[in-house]
Amino acid sequence: MRVTMIGAGYVGLVSGACFADFGHQVTCIDKDSRRVGALKRGEIPIFEPGLAELVEANVGQGRLEFTDQMSSVAQAEVVFIAVGTPSRRGDGYADLSFVYEAVREIAPQLAKTAVTVTKSTVPVGTGDEIERILREMRPDAELQVVSNPEFLREGAAIQDFKHPDRIVIGTDDPRARTALAEIYRPLYLNAAPMFYVSRRTAELVKYASNAFLATKITFINEIADLCEQVGADVQDIARGMGLDNRIGSKFLHPGPGFGGSCFPKDATALLKTAQDHGVALRIVETVSAVNDQRKRAMARKVVAALGGSVRGKTIAVLGLAFKPNTDDTRDSPSIPLITALQDLGAIVRAYDPAGMEQAKPALPAIHYCGSAYAAAEGAAALVIATEWEQFRALDLVRLKSVMAQPVIVDLRNIYRIDEMKRAAFRYVAVGRGGAE
Ligand SMILES: NC(=O)c1ccc[n+]([C@@H]2O[C@H](COP(=O)([O-])OP(=O)(O)OC[C@H]3O[C@@H](n4cnc5c(N)ncnc54)[C@H](O)[C@@H]3O)[C@@H](O)[C@H]2O)c1
Predict the structure, then answer these.
(1) Buried b (16+ CB within 10 A) or exposed e, 396-425
(2) Which is deepest, 116, 135, 185, 308, by most CB within 10 Å?
(3) pLDDT score at 189
(4) Residue nearest to atom 25 of ligand 1 (CA)
(5) Residues of the chain whose pLDDT is less than 50?
(6) What is the pTM of this model?
(7) Which among 173, 175, 265 has a CA at the least distance from the CA of 214?
(8) CB-based pocket (< 6 A), ligand 1
(9) pLDDT of residue 188
(10) Per-residue pLDDT, 117
(11) How far is the CA of 87 from the centre of ligand 1 (A)?
(12) What pLDDT does residue 192 have?
């Protein structure tokens, strides 16, 4: 099928490349002409494992192209919208200006029977407004609007896109269903469940899923706090809970609080939707508030590990991206952690394998280093903020030799307590009562 993707970011670029890999003819349109220029030169503007190879192969075989020109929308049978929906400044509602702008831009170009599909995460009812705009601008056409929220995870995006737990399709229209079934046919053949629901339901499934996952993380984080007080080990508790099939082991990893480009903003946007409809989502409200406080509280953990003050001390932070295998630092827990350490007078040296450029606007006054060991030089403490593979087996002897003091604050629990004891590090982890 002929598919157009509006927005070539984390979701649009991965989805576009995967659709092309399924055999569809895909054009990715992005209004950022520098991004399009880079893509045309074969440069991938984001860090996502496997993406460069996938894009190169599909461009080479003539199924994937990039442009900043909307005119190419005219040939598409299906147009996906995958532009950003960040939190609106000031009030926390989802900022839908990019979505509506894209809709107004594609409307004059759309073929008369084109299907428009929202892949961006949008509040319930957004599809109705998109349909209203399209009908107003194109009274001549029989346009359909579908919700098809995306569940991929950055860092494992291609695997997730090609092996999804489910594909949610929100539409009551048989023609639109057929078009989406055709697009996803290769996955359907692989037995990925196609879950057909109403458009409003599809929009809300996405928010409910993200809010639930955020709740699981926050739950185990609070249990971790309790573990620290009572001398229990949250790692074993998470394992003990996760072995229960009704609970499941995923998203039970304690840490510095959830971040990233989705969970925080989606939880807030869901709360706004609920408030507008007179419904109190108290669990999500609490999750959001607890998580906000937690990020800065991690700085107090570092202060405590250093005996009550970080003023004038150098702190090494490993990891700026909100999780491993991505360069995305949007709402990364490292940012409030580092800002708080700076507020308390610390000098911060940091290293991240992929996210340093992205972190610079939010963290202009830290020392960006070329490796974990370079960051550790002269540090009174080393904080592991993101669990990149390369941080899992650091040479502890080398680390100790360059640091001012042997103190590690492991906010991702990636080291064994006995290992740290043997290496004579003061080791502070999350929710492991016996760590110190
Ligand atoms: N990042 C994720 O892991 C993820 C996962 C699932 C869902 N989502 C959702 O998908 C959506 C996109 O997220 P993202 O992380 O890919 O965003 P992003 O910021 O990485 O990419 C958005 C792209 O859209 C482009 N754009 C904006 N307006 C445009 C327009 N009018 N025409 C053409 N291009 C335009 C921007 O230039 C940018 O390149 C969001 O709603 C997000 O919540 C994201």
Answers:
(1) beebbeebebbbbbbbbbbbebeebeebeb
(2) 116
(3) 76
(4) 7
(5) none
(6) 0.96
(7) 265
(8) 6-12, 29-32, 35, 82-85, 98, 101-102, 105, 120-121, 150, 152, 154, 261-262
(9) 78
(10) 98
(11) 13
(12) 85
